[in-house]
Design a protein that fits this description.
The protein is α/β, with parallel strands linked by helices. The chain has helices spanning 109-112, 203-211, 238-248, 265-274, 345-351, 375-388, 429-453; strands spanning 11-14, 35-37, 41-43, 51-53, 60-68, 74-82, 89-90, 115-116, 137-146, 149-159, 166-170, 176-181, 190-194, 215-220, 235-236, 258-263, 280-286, 294-296, 302-306, 308-310, 313-314, 362-367, 395-400.
Length: 454
């Protein structure tokens, strides 16, 4: 997928709507047999066409999608459609008649809108309930029903990554994480993914990037094991330089600059690292901050010092509010108060990353209903500085309307992504699904275009 990233500033507001559409296909006759046309297998982020054929003209049918998560729990979505004069229904072309699970014409709606079988489709899931897929792939069973009668059924397999990628667990004293290399023998552009405050590398995302030709290091920068900092406090920026050096020396990595792709706090780390490290060829930040905030100690309490250091000295930061923690269903409130307007200009300027000094193209993604921190405003500070400095490299900021903080590659179910046991993320299943799909496609295109030029 090729996307144009103009080297000019601006926000691009993404409206929730159809995620892909396909032309009507197929025909029916009195002798036609109902059938579901869908690829038998695809990568988890592939948008596929689902077409039902051989139906009675102008009849109401229900498409049911079912899958099992890692624990064996069953998830389901249903949508009712009216067939056309030719007896076909193309999911990406037609809006569901009932709209209980999703409302727009959306080819992937049956997959991302699934919810636990026992859950009420009109109510939020209990905190902490989310679809965790099996390790390598999961199957989705599609059934066409009229009332209680099943007309036809088929299964499509969703692979989480290409099984031919190479996995290397890193065991050096200097770098902690896992590397994933694309199939084949050719050198590939290198990318380092930086997790957020959860402290765990996003291996699933790294595997998927490797499936698309990127040599990807899912780096861990705090938590177990030693010598990493135990918590998100005073993480040295030089550690990213060590990770870049490790990845650059691997035989499967092309001799070019390395891309940094960070989520949330990892997005801040990517932006900050790009201002101190020369060998950065591209920067991606998903729901990042262009302002450095205080670090976190155990139990997510403010650390009393910066999250990051440079040359052994804490990076200037804004303090966090004392968290309001409580048991489910009242998880912790955001720490990022008081508002930016209540912070003195001197302190805010000192804590703002001087991104104009970074010599790399930059792509930012933010969400207007982000409940962890105001990622749109915090990303705009980055864009404002790039505008003011007439930054020579391309940069772009996509703002996803009504989406929340919890973004990941499509098209896993998004029910449960609005909150967890102790965090509120915001958004809605539909808005988050659209943001996942669009931002992921643009991120892949941006990394491919930027690293190819570096």
């Amino acid at each position: 997928m090729s996307l144009d990233f103009a080297p000019t500033r601006r926000r691009f507001i993404q409206s929730v709507g159809a995620i892909g559409s396909v032309a009507l296909a197929g025909c029916s006759s009195e002798e036609a047999t109902p059938a579901i046309e869908v690829p038998s297998t695809a990568l988890r982020d592939d948008s596929v066409s689902i077409t039902m054929t051989g139906l009675e003209a102008y009849s109401e049918i229900t498409l049911e999608a079912r899958a099992h998560d890692r624990s064996g729990a069953e998830w389901i979505s249903t949508a009712t459609f009216e067939s056309g004069a030719d007896g076909t229904v193309t999911v990406g072309k037609q809006r569901p008649l009932n709209g209980r699970y999703y409302e727009s014409a959306d080819s992937m709606g049956p997959l991302w809108s699934m919810r636990p079988v026992e859950a009420n489709p009109t109510e939020p899931l209990a905190p902490g309930v989310r679809f965790f897929p099996p390790e390598s792939a999961y199957e989705v069973t599609l059934t066409v029903r009229v009332g209680d009668q099943s007309l036809t059924e088929t299964t499509t397999r969703r692979r989480l990554y290409d099984p031919n990628i190479e996995h290397v667990e890193i065991t050096t004293e200097d770098v902690v994480g896992a590397a994933f290399f694309p199939p084949g023998d050719e050198p590939a552009p290198g990318v380092i993914h930086l997790h957020g405050a959860g402290g765990q590398p996003h291996r699933g995302l790294a595997r998927l990037l490797a499936s698309y030709g990127f040599a990807t290091l899912a780096l861990q920068y705090f938590g177990d094991p030693e010598p990493l900092p135990a918590t998100l406090r005073e993480v040295p920026i030089e550690y990213i330089e060590e990770a870049i050096a490790w990845l650059s020396t691997q035989d499967r990595v092309a001799e070019q600059q390395i891309g940094l792709f960070g989520f949330s706090r990892g997005g801040t780390l990517a932006l900050l690292a790009a201002t101190h490290i020369d060998h950065v060829g591209a920067v991606v930040g998903w729901v990042p901050s262009g302002v450095v905030y205080e670090g976190l100690d155990l139990n997510r309490t403010p650390a009393g010092t910066s999250a990051w250091t440079v040359g052994g000295e804490p990076v200037p930061y804004l303090e966090l509010a004392e968290p309001s923690l409580g048991p489910p269903p009242n998880p912790g409130l955001p720490y990022f108060e008081p508002p930016l307007e209540d912070t003195s200009s001197e302190r805010l300027e000192a804590a703002t990353i001087p991104i104009e000094t970074a010599d790399a193209p930059i792509y930012l993604v933010s969400a207007t209903d982000d409940q962890r921190w105001p990622s749109t405003r915090l990303s705009e500070r980055v864009i404002d500085r790039l505008d003011d400095s007439e930054h020579p490299n391309m940069y772009r900021h996509d703002v996803y309307k009504d989406a929340g903080h919890f973004l990941f590659p499509p098209y896993l179910p998004t029910a449960g992504t609005m909150r967890s046991t102790y965090n509120v993320y915001g958004g809605s299943p539909a808005a988050n699904a659209h943001a996942n799909s669009d931002a992921w496609a643009r991120t892949r295109s941006f990394l491919a275009n930027s690293l190819r030029r570096s």
